[in-house]
């Protein structure tokens, strides 16, 4: 089998892994304490981080002593625990990243499809068509009434749960309005400081427009760079998706820092700013914390390995072609 076919098969498999990543739990966090006994909470108060939201990690319990119609909502339980020390609800973290996640993943997939193409014209055409579809999709989703229904199922589920609403109540919202409304609502869930909330909501709006602008500008730069036959841009098509695990860990750690260093003074207990545990076990007050990768992160690492192998094969193929 030729190098061209192998490197394309590796890239296609990596794309499939990245698609699965979007629908998979990437990281899990659990809190354990004496008042949450293992008989009732075998995994502690557990939550799962996805790219489009944070989901309940607690399972429904079935035993002779305990019967539940549905699993305890451990996202709400953790928010309740955290608010005593002044931490904001989990849904207030990463509002822009969660809202734009489906477009960012589509952005990477288009780049990888272009990476598989031979010839600058085919690569530029793939990028132009793919990016145009993303821009139209993003406009309809973010800025038209009812656009929120074009968001991922997971995003809508988190929106419904965090705002305690029925789907029908926000079906006519735009995705951008849903992001703003959800951010304001979660910030004010326990700490109703309207001035501070409005200030942060205004910053969020500006930051969201800046990120969207940068994303569109990046698309144009990539297309121009490929047409100019700049080799750097060609290799960036695969380098950026390769760095997905690093992007996630940095993003995750950054938001943990924000939560631990932006404690609201209205909390019942005073706690010095702290850095929550990114990886491993830690302790905050009487709670033991556990923070570890889930299988979605394994899929990220799989895509990294596949793309590294595809890149090496592609590099060797191009070197041999130039040598001949």
From TrEMBL:
**Top-level lineage group:** Bacteria
Keyword line: Membrane, Transmembrane, Transmembrane helix
User: Which residues span the membrane?
Assistant: 7-28, 99-117, 124-142, 206-228, 235-258, 295-313
| Protein name, as recorded | Cytochrome C
Organism of derivation: Candidatus Marithioploca araucensis
